[in-house]
Write a sequence for this structure.
C-alpha cells in the first residue's frame, strides 16, 4: 500500500525545514494555522510567524510589505479565502510588483467534504492563473508538495500552491519535480490524460482500465499549471488522438481551459474536460462528492472511450 | 527636535515649488488628481525634507525609513518630491501618465523611491505594517510612514490593518490621514461619514495626534512626537484643504480627479509664484 499523507502536514514540516536554513522566510496565516499546518513553523519560529486573525486582505497586503523588505513570505489560508477574499490584494499589491509572496492554500475543491459549498474553492485556479507574474502549482501528493514548496522558496516572485484537505496516497516511482515541466507517468499512443492534484491517481487508474480494453492512454501529471508545459502537450497532440484533462476545479478557467487554450492556438486537438460543470459544491463525504461531480476514474474512462471511438 | 523659523521657511518654500510642479505635470498629462496631491504636499515635503532617513542615491538602502503612499492617486505630489530629491531626473515629471514612460498614473515599483505598488485603495496601511514587522524581525531601527486618504479609510482593509498594527505594538509605524473632507462623489461626511475619527483610531489602539496639515511646524512636531511613542502605532490626523494653494481649486470637488486646463494651469502657476514672492 502506498503511503497516505496530508499535503498540509508536509507543507508545515517543509516550512520548518526551510526556516532552519534561511533567516529570510516569514510565514503568515489568518486564523487557520492549525488546519493549514503553518502552526508547525510558528511553534519553532514564533518571531517569524504572524497570525492576522480572520483578515485575509490584511494578511496578503502585509505579506507584500514584508516581501518588499527582502523576506520570502508564505501566506496561508483556505483556497476559498486566499483566492476570493483577497484577490485585489494579490493582484495589485503582490503580483503587480512581482513580490516574493508564496500563497499556499489548503482545503481546495469538493474533497473539503462536510463543510460544503462555501468552503469548497472550485474557481481559485481560474482567478489566480489570470494574473500576470503569478505561477500556479497543484501538487498531486505529499512528496510533490514538498518539492513545490522548496521550488517556490527558491524561485523569486509570487506563487499559488493549491493543496487539499484530505490524506492522499503518495505516487510511487514518480519522476523528479521541475517547475513548468509536466511529468510523464505512463506512455500511451492512443490518447492523453492530463491531470493535476488529487485527479492524478484516478487518471492512472483510468489508464489501467482503458488498457484492458485495448486503449493505450498516456498520462501526464501537469503539476505546474502556469507556466504550462507546452512541449509535452505538443508532443502528445502529435502522437495521440486527443486529450482528457482532469481536475478537481471548475471546467471554467482551470487546467482543462489552459490546455484547450494552448492547443487551439498551436495544434488543434480534441480536448474533453473532467471537472465541476458550473456548479457549487455541497456537504458530503469525499467519495460521494467525487462521484456526484463526475470526478472518478469511471468518469475519465467514459470520456476517454468517447475520444477513442 | 523642533525646527527653527528659517528651516520652516525653507520647507514652506519647497512645498510651494512642489505645488507648482504638481500643477504643471497634471496640466501636461491632461488627467490625474490635483485636489489630494495639493492637500498632501506639505505633509510629503516635511517628511522627505526633514523627517525621513533616506538616500535618493541609494533607494534600496536597507536602513532607510519606508514610505507607502496608500492613497496612490496622489502620486503627482510624491513624484514631484522624489524628483526634487534626486531619485530620478526631473524631466520625467513631464512624462507623467504617458505611454512608454516611467511615471505611471498610480505608483509602480519600477519608479525609484516607490516601495510597493498602490492605487487600489485600502491596502497601503497593511503594506506599511509589513515593512514595520520586517524591521522587528531584522532588529532594525528604521521607521515606516503611510499616507492615507480620508475617503480611503472607508475600505475595510484599513481597519484590519489598524487592528493588527496595534496588536503587534508597531511603534515604528506612523500613519498620516490627509483629512481634506472630500472624495470623488462629494463631501466625505455626505458620501459615507467617517467621524468620530480620533475616537475610532484611539479605540483601535493607536496614539492619535490632531494637527493642521498645512502648518509646517505642527507637521514636523507631530512626526517628532510619534517617534517617542512606545508600544503603539501613531495616527496623525492632518486637517487639510483639498486643492490647497490654488484658490480656485480649494475645496472644489471637481478637482479631485480632473487635471487643470491650459488656462487654469497658467492662473494656478501665477498664483503660486505670487505667493512665493509674497
Amino acid at each position: 500500500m502506498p503511503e497516505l499523507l496530508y499535503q498540509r502536514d508536509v507543507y508545515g514540516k517543509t516550512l520548518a525545514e526551510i526556516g532552519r536554513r534561511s533567516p529570510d522566510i516569514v510565514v503568515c496565516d489568518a486564523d487557520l494555522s492549525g488546519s493549514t499546518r503553518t502552526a508547525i513553523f510558528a511553534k519553532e519560529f514564533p518571531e517569524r510567524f504572524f497570525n492576522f486573525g480572520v483578515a485575509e486582505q490584511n494578511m496578503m497586503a502585509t505579506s507584500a510589505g514584508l516581501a518588499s523588505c527582502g523576506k520570502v513570505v508564505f501566506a496561508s489560508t483556505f483556497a476559498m479565502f486566499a483566492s476570493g477574499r483577497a484577490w485585489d490584494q494579490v493582484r495589485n499589491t503582490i503580483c503587480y510588483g512581482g513580490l516574493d509572496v508564496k500563497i499556499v492554500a489548503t482545503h481546495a475543491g469538493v474533497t473539503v467534504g462536510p463543510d460544503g459549498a462555501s468552503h469548497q474553492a472550485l474557481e481559485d485556479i481560474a482567478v489566480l492563473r489570470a494574473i500576470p507574474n503569478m505561477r500556479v502549482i497543484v501538487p498531486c501528493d505529499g512528496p510533490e508538495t514538498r518539492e513545490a514548496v522548496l521550488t517556490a522558496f527558491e524561485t523569486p516572485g509570487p506563487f499559488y500552491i493549491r493543496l487539499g484537505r484530505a490524506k492522499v496516497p503518495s505516487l510511487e516511482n514518480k519522476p523528479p519535480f521541475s517547475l513548468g515541466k509536466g511529468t510523464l507517468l505512463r506512455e500511451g499512443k492512443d490518447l492523453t490524460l492530463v491531470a493535476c492534484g488529487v485527479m492524478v491517481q484516478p487518471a492512472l487508474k483510468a489508464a489501467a482500465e482503458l488498457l484492458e480494453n485495448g486503449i493505450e492512454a498516456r498520462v501526464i501529471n501537469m503539476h505546474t499549471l502556469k507556466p504550462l508545459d507546452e512541449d509535452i502537450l505538443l508532443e502528445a497532440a502529435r502522437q495521440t488522438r486527443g486529450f482528457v484533462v482532469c481536475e478537481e476545479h471548475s471546467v471554467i478557467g482551470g487546467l482543462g481551459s489552459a490546455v484547450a487554450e494552448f492547443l487551439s492556438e498551436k495544434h488543434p486537438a480534441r480536448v474533453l474536460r473532467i471537472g465541476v460543470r458550473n456548479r457549487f459544491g455541497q456537504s458530503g463525504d469525499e467519495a460521494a462528492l467525487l462521484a456526484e461531480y463526475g470526478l472518478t476514474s469511471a468518469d475519465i474512462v467514459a470520456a476517454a472511450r468517447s475520444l477513442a471511438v | 527636535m523642533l525646527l527653527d523659523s528659517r528651516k520652516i521657511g525653507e520647507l514652506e518654500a519647497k512645498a510651494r515649488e512642489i505645488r507648482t510642479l504638481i500643477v504643471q505635470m497634471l496640466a501636461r498629462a491632461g488627467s490625474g488628481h490635483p485636489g489630494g496631491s495639493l492637500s498632501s504636499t506639505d505633509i510629503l515635503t516635511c517628511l522627505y525634507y526633514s523627517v525621513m532617513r533616506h538616500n535618493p542615491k541609494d533607494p534600496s538602502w536597507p536602513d532607510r525609513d519606508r514610505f507607502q503612499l496608500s492613497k496612490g492617486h496622489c502620486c503627482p505630489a510624491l513624484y514631484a518630491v522624489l524628483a526634487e530629491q534626486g531619485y530620478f531626473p526631473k524631466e520625467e515629471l513631464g512624462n507623467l501618465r504617458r505611454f512608454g514612460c516611467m511615471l505611471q498614473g498610480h505608483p509602480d515599483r519600477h519608479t525609484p523611491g516607490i516601495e510597493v505598488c498602490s492605487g487600489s485603495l485600502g491596502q497601503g496601511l497593511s503594506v506599511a505594517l509589513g515593512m514595520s514587522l520586517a524591521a522587528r524581525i531584522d532588529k532594525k531601527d528604521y521607521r515606516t510612514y503611510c499616507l492615507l486618504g480620508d475617503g480611503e479609510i472607508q475600505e475595510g482593509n484599513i481597519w484590519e490593518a489598524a487592528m493588527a498594527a496595534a496588536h503587534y505594538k508597531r511603534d515604528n509605524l506612523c500613519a498620516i490621514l490627509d483629512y481634506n473632507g472630500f472624495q470623488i462623489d462629494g463631501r466625505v461626511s455626505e458620501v459615507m461619514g467617517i467621524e468620530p475619527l480620533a475616537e475610532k483610531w484611539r479605540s483601535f489602539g493607536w496614539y492619535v495626534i490632531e494637527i493642521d496639515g498645512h502648518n509646517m511646524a505642527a507637521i514636523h512636531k507631530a512626526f517628532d512626537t510619534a517617534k517617542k511613542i512606545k508600544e503603539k502605532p501613531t495616527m496623525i490626523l492632518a486637517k487639510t484643504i483639498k486643492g490647497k494653494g490654488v484658490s480656485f481649486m480649494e475645496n472644489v470637488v471637481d478637482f479631485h480627479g480632473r487635471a487643470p486646463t491650459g488656462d487654469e494651469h497658467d492662473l494656478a502657476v501665477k498664483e503660486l509664484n505670487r505667493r512665493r514672492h509674497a
Q: What stands out?
A: DSSP finds ten helices and seven strands in chain B. Residues 5-277 of chain B form a domain with the Rossmann fold fold (CATH 3.40.50.970).
